[in-house]
Amino acid sequence: MTGRHYISQRSAVHVLNAICRQLDTPSMFREIEALQAKLNETEDEDEQRALEEDVTGKILWLSWCGICAEVDEQLPKVVDYLRREADMGGLHNMSVAMLPITGTDLGDDQTHLQRIMHDAGAGTSKHQLLLAARAAEQVKWSGTNRGAPAIDNQSTTPSTSSQTPSTRAV
């Protein structure tokens, strides 16, 4: 991990922590339950996958915010202890122990989980994006042949086919 990437990642963590402080935990639990219920009712595989990402992202986000709240609460106690005991060697040992964690690149799976967690924190729903993309695609294809005659009855009904009708006699 480059120094620049590490600094930008740390800046992102500070932004996420600020967002976490505004989290309404009971509301988040209700959202997760509603998404899970919707997932249980959904048969379409693409929708299931999007809903699974939304549920997982919200759970990860909730967990991240809980950890941040705990660290925010405990950190002043740790700092106070270190100052009182003048034990800076312990702080150095902790930083050395954490160095391998912060100095490695994330694998694809971890990167994916981090992305869906950040999406949940930003309020981005994969399911809503999927539904919006499908609606846009449907509008795109339903609007291409408006007013064009249909193949069978020569009337002016809309068609979802992108092919022009054949005029050849059979």
Q: How would you describe this protein?
A:
With 170 residues, the chain is mainly alpha-helical. The chain has 6 helices and no strands. α2 (25-41) runs antiparallel to α3 (45-85), α3 (45-85) packs across α5 and α3 (45-85) runs antiparallel to α6. The protein starts with a helix and ends in a 28-residue tail after the last helix.
Key words describing this protein structure:
170 residues, mainly alpha, 72% helix, 0% strand, elongated
Report the sheet with the most strands, covering strand number, pairing sense and barrel closure: none
Q: Whole-Å distance between the termini?
A: 68 Å
Give the SSE order as H and E letters: HHHHHH
Helix content: over 70%
Q: Could you list the spans in which at least 5 consecutive residues all have pLDDT below 50? A: 149-170
Query: DSSP strand (E) fraction?
Result: under 5%
Structural class based on helices, strands and sheet pairing: mainly alpha
Mean pLDDT: 76
How much is the radius of gyration in Å? Answer: 26 Å
What gross morphology would you assign?
elongated
Please report the total strand number as a whole number.
0
